[in-house]
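Following up on my earlier thread - several people asked me to post the actual chain instead of describing it. Fair enough. Here it is, all 444 residues.
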Amino acid sequence: MEEYRRIADRVEAAVRDGRLRPGDRLPPQRVFARRHGIANSTAIRVYGELARRGLVVGEVGRGTFVRAAPPPPGPALVEATGTAPVDLQLNYPVAEGQSELMARALTALARPGVLAGTLARPAAADGTPEARDAAAAVLAGTGWAPDPGNVLFAGSGRRAVAAALSALVPPGGRLGVEELTYPPLKAVAERLGIRLVPLALDAEGVRPGALAAAHRTAPLAAVYLQPTLHNPLATTAGEERRAALAQLLRGLDLTAVEDTTWAFLDPAAPAPLAAHAPERVVLVDSLSKRLAPGLTVGYLVVPGRLRAAVAEALRSGAWTADGFALAAATRWAGDGTVAEAVAAKRADVVARHALVLRRLAGQAFRTSPHAYFCWWELPAPWRAETFAAAAAARAGVAVTPGGAFATGPGAAPGAIRVGLASPPHAVLDGALARLADLAASGPG
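Reply from S.P.:
Thanks for posting it. Predicted structure:
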């Protein structure tokens, strides 16, 4: 066994037997290295391994903190009892009757002749004409309908983002990104060697002035934005803000990657940024939230000038969709499954929003009637990491500290994101009540 794993095992044992408690701060990595007689690079790997095991979480600018011991194997989405937490970190909505809806298409695809064609190879980056038409219908919304000829397919939304960034930003290049953003975006950027440039936010998302200033400091290769139901803040940019951003993209000769993964939940949201500047925006989306992450497809709507580059990135990165998943997605779009699931989730999210309003009344939080997440600014003297650790240990609820979303040093907020999508309503209601009680009781 490699040395860093042996040391990580010893730290994990200390967490399990109580010598390290939830909320305890680990020493800086250089100090840890000196104490254990190891190289700094080995200490970095130890901390990375501890994070991978779910034992610690780093809070930008504050350090690395112990979380609760890992939960035992088995379903996590149950009423909290001791060490088995209600998971309000993962955020995958499942509508009532959704499995039965999806089974209709899968039954038709299970014939041997169909399987022979869909299982033999990955789908092409541009799928089939039928798949492109179906994708365009899924993505169409208020004031916008994508050209099916501009649609490409990835294995997931995350792979779609990776392909877009790989085509737009060279290794070492600068990517403008919201100062609080979707955490896997940070992992994708790190893997591709992309440097993230935090952009200041207001109530409508990225401030155009902040984008212009960052580009003047040193040219950006591209920018990543979530204009509708921003994760984690649940903000949505208005028409004027979108028009201003579109004009700025043209003026700066920049391309934006617009992530609309959650936008389907708000039928009244403005048309995407891609509608304002189709030649300057690569729109990415997926079926993971509309349907399910286990069998999903990622979508890209790509300007013609970038189509070849993004398609090549999909192929070279092995990010294309699976043939069976694309065939299923095409049928689900055509037979009404996607539309039914979307309608059910739009109703479900409103009901869950009502639970938040009731249980967190009087707290400082941001959300939307259409958002499956809540950004909760904690009361003093709570810190995000300490609260997350205490929530798991004392309330049996797993939440995400705000530092997981921060893209710049010193930007770690005293807030947590609460995912609302996954547990049954009664379980969510009880978890929110326990979190509110914990916040009121204080760290002591």
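The first strand starts at residue 25 and ends at 26. That should answer part of your original question.
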